[in-house]
Amino acid sequence: MAADESVDVLLEVNERAWKLLKDSLVDVSDDEANWRPHPLGNNINDIVRHLRIEGEWHRDSLVHGAAMPAEVTPALQARIDAIPFDYAGNVSTLEKVVIEFIAALGTTTMEALAARTSVVYGSAFGPQISKRFLGHHQEQHLTLHCGQIRTIRNLYRKSRGEPAPFFPDNPTFPPAATAR
Questions:
Q1: Which of 13, 51, 118, 128 sits in a 20 to 30 Å window from 69, CA-based?
Q2: 131 or 3: whose pLDDT is higher?
């Protein structure tokens, strides 16, 4: 339970998003991590690296009040470029930073979260930022990319004649042979 009970729902959605993403990455082989459904598309390795980078930004914004990057400066680009395309290492670092983010979220209050959100996003992100966006931005980001990862994993398996690992028998989708 959070220091401020009203933060509990933010903790719950962040913990749930992390669990879903982590479960989606179980048993990903090197080949699967680097497989692209399209030559211009992202692969799981790219997505995990991206999540690790942005996860560090979210954690640093919540814990230290570091501004969320609004533009890519040469110095920031150099820091981004220094992150290797190391799937296992990036999964490990991502887990560490998400756990630290969730722990920090559990020690904050809604009032402090609103103040921190205002500082770390500033006016560069415009009026679409909700008052406590920092408390749920990470969750939205993880959830969005979890869907991408699950889709890539389903396509990877199906392209090899294997069953899709996520919702293989969803009745709301017609079988491929009958799809229009």
A1: 13
A2: 131
Cα–Cα distance between 11 and 139 in angstroms, integer?
A: 9
pLDDT, tens only, 104-117: 999 999 999 999 99
Tell me the DSSP string of the chain: --SSGGGHHHHHHHHHHHHHHHHHTTT--HHHHH--SSTTS--HHHHHHHHHHHHHHHHHHHHH-PPPP-S--HHHHHHHHTS---HHHHHHHHHHHHHHHHHHHTT--HHHHHHHHHHHHTGGG-TTS-TTTHHHHHHHHHHHHHHHHHHHHHHHHHTTTPPPSSSTT-TTS--GGG--
Annotated domain spans of the chain = 5-166
Q: How far apart are alpha carbons 156 and 3 in whole angstroms?
A: 43
The predicted-structure confidence for 147-175, as pLDDT tens digits, reads as follows 999 999 999 999 999 999 988 777 777 76
**The CATH number of the domain covering residues in 5-166:** 1.20.120.450
